[in-house]
Amino acid sequence: MDLVPALEEPLKKVLGPATAKVMAEHLGLHTVGDLLHHYPRRYEERGQLTHLADLPMDEHVTVVAQVADARLHTFASAKAPRGKGQRLEVTITDGSGRLQLVFFGNGVHKPHKELLPGTRAMFAGKVSVFNRRLQLAHPAYELLRGDGEEAVETWAGALIPLYPATAKLESWKIGKAVQTVLPHAREAVDPLPPSLREGRGLVGLPEALLKIHRPHTPADVEDARSRLKWDEAFVLQVALARRRHADAQLPAVARRSGPDGLLAAFDDRLPFTLTDGQKKVSKEIFDDLATEHPMHRLLQGEVGSGKTMVALRAMLAVVDSGGQAAMLAPTEVLAQQHHRSVVEMMGELAEGGMLGGAEHATKVVVLTGSMGAAARRQALLDLVTGEAGIVIGTHALIEDKVQFHDLGLVVVDEQHRFGVEQRDALRGKGKQPPHLLVMTATPIPRTVAMTVFGDLETSVLDQLPAGRSPIASHVVPAADKPHFLARAWERVREEVSNGHQAYVVCPRIGDEEIDPRKKSAEDEAEKRPPLAVLDVAAQLGAGPLQGLGVEVLHGRMAPDDKDAVMRRFAAGDTDVLVATTVIEVGVNVPNATAMVIMDADRFGVSQLHQLRGRVGRGSAPGLCLLVTEMPEASPARQRLGAVAATLDGFELSRIDLEQRREGDVLGQAQSGARSSLRVLAVIDDEEIITEARQEAAAVVAADPELTALPGLRTALDALLDEEREQYLEKG
């Protein structure tokens, strides 16, 4: 790597081993460059110089004054019962008035030595009142030696940077360390091409680093931030553009379906017409499949917008062209469910090689980790011979033993649960790279899609198929209005007596040991762990839902048991299913019309939206009740109110992003790599991200290896160091 040595210098050489160790362990900072890119979170103004005669209450002030008097007192207190407590009182004057400063405890030693009568200094702190006299407690101070007029001006007017700190390293210590390495900033190599920088009037990188750490005015901070935002957006978009460029160079087999093949036979069987959205997105996908380099497409859509149907038609088109298609699902429950619904939708078209199978039929197999040996052997055989055109499975599809006859398309369901290694492993099973379709049921705002999934083209399904019913959502404040909760259970009974079914969702299973030491602050506030499936099911069966068929479903059950429970529920044999979030994705029981989510405040916005999408899938209207004990004014209640107020997943994903920091969103999408975004806000900086994407595409098209831009290559290497190598194909 041809990084500038000055910025590669290890911190322990510059700051000493002790400080460097704390920085590495607690802040992940190892080199001078890392520290220079650890930006202040905000800035304090020391306050303009104030005369002692007109000090405002409760404000931060900076005064220049002379020490008139200093006295050390000892006193007894709870902490120092034997009269060992120490208090230093210093009186200062500036000619216009007098002011008392106080220092306590161990904080008295340094000022006691330095603030001798006659000493002139600057003092900064917050004005408070004690015994009806104004005072500053533990002020920061700087001694003035010599004439000091200039020092007074610069010190008082300066913006004090406050850094993201840790208990082991206060902000001002980080500030001091930054001060030590700041001269190196002049040697930072600029990653932005000069034409881009000049065209947008951005300051150079060395100047931006100096201004963000040592601004003289708010305008300096603004200059630095707009420049550094561009760095983050542009370097990230260049990395994604290079990925797209490299993928476009790969060869792939063009897959086109014939006019009278499997796809045509399937379309003829459909009992409904596709929505305009499904037709449009299908065309985008078929156009991609017909090219000789691999498709990389993200299909995102509302819960229930019919993504599975679009994906199935793409898979059938590939089978028509002689290839095979694999669908990767995140859980066994979901893989089984997809397999059942695909076989159901295809009817005799899924019975290839069997009696009664249609002329164009293929075989649809399922492959999961918990299958019996014989069934598994048969499935593997069907894949390697090409007998099975479609396979639906979990991570088990990725294992070395699994071989395909001719893998043409990989469909990944619920992208955020799969890391890049898994996607690549499956793609490696084709003779040539297969086409890739990634589906996500959590709608993502456009900017996030451009930042997180920037290596994929995006298709959006935003209309619901005909026959989907509206879902009414309400917040049930169980603590303020217990009768609302009683009414919720009555509503469940009413749905069941009308021939429908219901879900009750809880955050926890109930057979885990809860470590009392690991309680979160929220738990502490509420004094109880989250509600659990096993407890709630027992209480409902013996209480408000007595006499109804209540069953439980959770992730720690044996796969066969899970499958049996889901089959009974799908068949209508069970009235109420009490479950964890295993039902969050893809579970399709059109007869289930009601859902009660217990401790709803424990779930994220997109998770609640996903869960809610499990009801209202038939012709009867859906009902979703969000039960919470959080008080009305709390952020958690506002979040639930937002979910109840709209069924628009894109709107909710924006709300979700604004409430969490996008570091979490990107972090979640990056399989744990820490977010490299420090000043760029994904939602607010939409314009920069869009422009950076265009600029990056142009730069990469002209010079894919970036030979003319060594500074940009350096910045890319820093972004793509080992720990963040996965950053670009987030899991």
Secondary structure: elements and pairs:
Elements: H1 5-8, H2 11-15, H3 17-27, H4 32-36, E1 42-45, E2 60-75, E3 85-93, E4 98-104, H5 109-114, E5 120-130, E6 133-137, E7 140-143, H6 149-157, E8 159-162, H7 171-181, H8 194-199, H9 205-213, H10 218-249, H11 262-269, H12 276-289, E9 296-301, H13 307-320, E10 324-328, H14 332-346, E11 363-367, H15 373-385, E12 388-393, E13 407-413, H16 420-427, E14 435-440, H17 446-452, E15 457-461, E16 471-477, H18 482-497, E17 501-505, H19 521-526, H20 533-542, E18 550-553, H21 559-571, E19 576-579, E20 592-597, H22 605-612, E21 622-628, H23 635-645, H24 649-659, H25 662-669, H26 686-702, H27 710-719
Parallel strand pairs: 4-6, 9-14, 9-15, 10-12, 10-13, 11-12, 13-14, 16-21, 17-19, 17-20, 18-19, 20-21
Antiparallel strand pairs: 1-8, 2-3, 2-5, 3-4, 5-6, 5-7
Helix pairs in contact: 9-10, 10-26, 10-27, 11-13, 12-13
